[in-house]
Amino acid sequence: MERAKRIILRSDVFRSCSGVNIVELMLAVVLSSLVFIAVMMIDVSSRRFFKSASAQSRIASDVAFIMEHMQSNLKKGTAINRISAEHLEIWVDELNTPSVFSDDTKYEYQLSGSDLECIRTPDGGGAQTTVLSSDISFLEFNVVPDAHMVNITITGCRKVTGVKIDDAFKYEYLTLISGVCLRCKAGQT
């Protein structure tokens, strides 16, 4: 009889523990929802970081290419004329005839809106315009005539697609400043 009582008591204990009540179910739903929201927030923030980092990388690449292009022509320049803070003319002796200036090629760098243009005019004429970048927000040429030097400041700007802060797009900026020593005397108008 005692054995039968123990079996009955054990079965009553199991019967009261079987199944999941509504409170446990709601608690499980709330906890799984919090975990899901945390994972989604991490995913969204990592996507924003990736877009921002890739925009900065593209800007850095554009600005570095432009700076190399300008520095190359400035170092080879036989004459330089600063028209304005955003417009510079460089004459380059591409045929390597130092005593003859009539065959020099003229390069003009100018900011037109957000486009940085390089206008190449060979000695025979026929200007060729190349847009070096469409993401430049600021360009400044400072000529230091006594030091035979040109200081260049370029600021690149790119809209980060898909990232908005307070209903406004986020922009990434990068400024590069470089000084170039010249082999000729720089002029200003």
Please describe what this structure looks like.
The protein is α+β, with helices and mostly antiparallel strands and 189 residues long. The chain has one domain (31-188). Helices cover 38% and strands 41% of the residues. It has helices at 2-17, 22-76; strands at residues 77-84, 87-92, 105-112, 115-121, 128-133, 136-144, 149-165, 168-181, 186-188. The strands form two sheets. Strands 5-4-3-2-1-9 form a six-stranded mixed sheet, covered by helices on one side. A three-stranded antiparallel sheet has the order 6-7-8. The chain is rod-shaped, with a radius of gyration of 34 Å. The termini are far apart. The mean pLDDT is 78.
Estimate the helix proportion, in percent.
25-40%
Order of helices and strands: HHEEEEEEEEE
Structural class: alpha+beta
What is the strand arrangement across the widest sheet? 5-4-3-2-1-9
Number of separate helices: 2
Q: In what range is the share of β-strand residues?
A: 35-45%
